[in-house]
Amino acid sequence: MKKIQPFWENGYITEEILVFVEQGSEISATLAFDAPQNVVLRDRTGRVLQENKDYIRKGNRIVALSKEIPYLKAEWLKNINVPKEIPNENEAYHIEGCLLIDPRYLRELQILADYTTTGAALKIVSDKICLPETKRLLNEEKKLKIALFGDSISNAANSSFEMGFSGFTHWITPVIEYLQDESGTDVEFINVSRSGYGTEWALEAVEEKLGKEHVDLTIIAFGMNDGSADMSVETFVQNVSELMERIKQYNSKTEFVLVATPIPNADCKAVYKEQARYIDGLRALEGKGVSVVNMTEAFTWLLKRKRYCEISGNNLNHPNDFGYRFYTDAFKRLFYQICNQNEE
Hints:
The protein is globular. The protein has helices spanning about 75, 90-95, 105-110, 130-140, 160-165, 175-185, 200-210, 225-230, 235-250, 280-285, 295-305, 310, 320-340, and strands spanning about 10-20, 20-25, 25-30, 35-40, 55-60, 60-65, 70-75, 110-115, 145-150, 185-190, 215-220, 255-260, 290-295. The strands form 3 sheets. It has a 5-stranded mixed sheet with strand order 5-6-3-2-7. A 5-stranded parallel sheet has the order 10-9-11-12-13, sandwiched between helices. A 3-stranded antiparallel sheet has the order 1-8-4, with no helix packed on it. It has 2 domains: about 10-115, no CATH class; about 130-344, Rossmann fold. Strand 2 and strand 3 (about 25-30) form a beta hairpin. The protein has 13 helices and 13 strands. It has about 350 residues and is an alpha/beta fold.
């Protein structure tokens, strides 16, 4: 297989999302990666912004010079003094603390950035990859059935794809294409995820969703809604462990990739709870037939550099297009490592 270098390592960033925010006397947004060079910014219409006319750059910070660049005010993002013309979903979902912004409206505010950088050494894909049956099927049988079993993030919620914009795909589609093209494997993929639900629902839904599927590899990607429901790390891990056992009743050789969830907006205390702690519990489940992809690490790293509205499609709990790219490249890297473990 052709070696995949995730975009965060390869030194060239395309279409990173910026959202400009007015705080004090400055309207700014931030590039995630250090030592940015050859920066090109454009809006959703394709218009290229002009440096020293529309903006200036101060290291990683992009400062707007023109109020023609769309922006939000910092207080609005905390759901304070929000103008009536800004569509939000706070009342509908009883959300307080942060602006639950309409994803289509937020998309129109996004500025896309291309630039070169030194990259970042993020450890999203586990070193403990021990999926021998998956490797055998890829390298010998050339066939593999994969199931994605998760919540709204597994349905690519608030992505351009999910909103119906042309030219965009679900974050896992390029992964399946890469796997088929590079390994010559016949990949069958099913997505049995359900938005708004967690592991308690999954335990009840296993037979309905996977009982007749005979899946070889199951990607289990819950945690966002479990955390919001105050589920403890211990209960969450117990549920995931039980979920794996129930799935294996239908194929004893099934292997698993466990995805540690991104974290929600910390300003919304009703939603931001246990999510960041689940990765430690999932690590305890790693072993033969079980590996972990740590999206908690990716989004924690991003939030040290960018505002939540720049990495999210709704400013609450769903990634935006740029955030979902971390999923795509992490899973490409995972499958490369599975197929080429002896070469690593």
